[in-house]
Specification:
about 50% helix, Rossmann fold, alpha/beta
C-alpha cells in the first residue's frame, strides 16, 4: 500500500483521495507520506469516535498539517452533538455533517452510484459542500 500511495501522492497539482481502513495501522506504518489534508470519518458510535481520537495525534506526528473530521451517518441532533463535542475535545475541526440517508442504501441495492441514482440526495449535497471546502 505504501508504494501505491507514494506513487499517487507524489504528483503536483493533482487530487487523490485514498479511502483507508478505519484503524491506526496505516498511520503507525507511516503510509500517508505526502498528504496535504487528512479526512477522518467519524460515526456516532463510541469506538468510531475513539478511533478518530487516536488518529488525530498520529497524523500530527506525521506532519499532516490539515486534518478535518467528517461526521457521518448522523440521524438526529444527539448524534451530531456527540460527534461535535468529542471532536472538539480532541481538537478535530469538523468540515461537514453527512446525514444518515436511505438513498445511499437504495442506490447500493440497485448496484448504482449514488450520484447517478439520487443526485439531489442529502449525502450528495453534503459531499459537494466538502469538496468546495477542500478546493
Amino acid at each position: 500500500m505504501r508504494g501505491v500511495a507514494s506513487a499517487l501522492l507524489g504528483v503536483e497539482n493533482e487530487v487523490n483521495l485514498l479511502d483507508m481502513e478505519a484503524s491506526i495501522e496505516h498511520l503507525a506504518r507511516g503510509t500517508p507520506g505526502g498528504v496535504d489534508c487528512m479526512l477522518v470519518v467519524v460515526e456516532p458510535y463510541y469506538r468510531a469516535m475513539e478511533t478518530a481520537g487516536r488518529i488525530v495525534p498520529l497524523a500530527k506526528e506525521l506532519g499532516i498539517a490539515r486534518i478535518l473530521g467528517i461526521a457521518n451517518k448522523i440521524r438526529d441532533g444527539e448524534d451530531a452533538r456527540a460527534i461535535r463535542d468529542y471532536c472538539g475535545s480532541k481538537g478535530l475541526e469538523l468540515a461537514v455533517e453527512i446525514p444518515f440517508d436511505d438513498a445511499v442504501r437504495a442506490a447500493d441495492r440497485r448496484g448504482r452510484s449514488l450520484l447517478d441514482d439520487a443526485p439531489d440526495s442529502a449525502t450528495v449535497r453534503a459531499v459537494a459542500d466538502l469538496a468546495r471546502q477542500l478546493y
